[in-house]
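Action item from last week, closing it out:
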Amino acid sequence: MILYDQLAMDTQYAGNLIALENVLTAQGKTMMVLNFTDYSQGMMNEFSRMIILKNSKNDIINTELIDDFRNYSGEIMYIGQLSQELIENKAVFNGMSQSQSSIQLFDQNHTFSNEIVEECHYINENETDSQLFIAVNGIKHPFSKKNETIQWVPLFLDNASFQICLGDAVKTWFSNSENNAMMTVVIPNIYPFSDLMLLVETTNKLYEYGIPFTVGIVPVTENIEYPAMQNYYQVLRYAQSKNGSIVIHQPDQQTTNGIIENSNTIIDKEVKILIENGIYPLGIIASEEMLFTTQKEDNLLSSFSSGVIIQNDNETIIENKSSWGFEKSSLGITMQQIDDTRSNTRRYHNYGIDTTIIIDLSEDLIALDGVIERLNYKWMKITDFKEIQNQWEIGDTSLYSDALGITINGMGVSLSYNDDEIIDDYDYQEKQQYSLEKIFNAGNRVLLIFVGLIIIVFIGILLLSRWVYLNKFRKKIKKKDKEKNKKDDNRQ
């Protein structure tokens, strides 16, 4: 259960509720989100764990919440400013505040980039055995502190560094001490009219460096017989053959032939089309909002065991809500976050939680080459999405994947690629162009022959005219010569 006081939209805390939801959904957690004012007596007793998010100094006036909190026996994570109404002995946490501070986050293996905050709350203690720290103006302090059943995190903002560190703290809070966090790579928002040649070049480059990757595709269920769609499927098959995996973006509502199709209809169609074309989707890319606005029951999206949680670009839904989650999910981060992170050792260490690096195909090839080279020389170890043990069952089709490969209905599938297929398609298009070229060439030849004939006729006419003219001239000369000869004879 998450209880929050306000969204604090005009402060440095703006967006941290959504960021918190991302952290939890990326770890497969389900939750109910409720504002302080909407809380009713006994509600928190239905949950074994509770998170308080307090972004303001305002007093809490909901007495039912106060009474239940003081009697609550479950585990509590308290994020933000301590409230006297809830924490009677605030001194045990040794909290301090500073304005206009330079802060920097650390985990066991990484140092994150600096940033300036208007107001900084922190634990005024030196480094402990904690593996998470926040440096305030150059001095390290614990990122969080536990007292009895309450784990206090003084500061949480909406950025990837805070999400990664809080995610690590949440993971420990849920008594999950396994240090086996995975990192994957995804190229999102691919559809038939994306730059498919750039995708092929990117695929080849990632394969050359031995970096497993995932392609996130936008569902397209209409006009699949068009050559462009067939070429699109060929490219996806090619990506699969180069150690690539396929995941589907959460679908938007579509209208087909005047009929509104919901996500279930779209996913059902998309999965069948992909399987028929030798493409095997392993999971879903979704925003945390989708996990709140849809119900798990009778929802085909929930059939997938794996998901990548990306930033929600829509406005915050300001209402009480409950969510569902994937069995295995990861937090989507940008390449900029990777660039802003420095490894404390020369060993390969991923973040403390599962993450997915998002590579945007909108970059040109030179920029993508730079991104891939940075991935290759960075400190992380990239995991093949197929090895995460993905599974789903939709209709009469089921899929399972692990390190041994992908099976459909219990039968292994081949990811090898037959390049003759795509070449045939291109030959077909080339022949169309070639036949037109022949027509134009034939036309040109006819025109040249016609012009040549005209020139020959013209020359013939000129020669004939010259011959006729010369003949007339010769006749006149002969006539004059005869007349002259006669005159000469008469004189004699």
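Closing note: DSSP finds ten helices and 26 strands in the chain.
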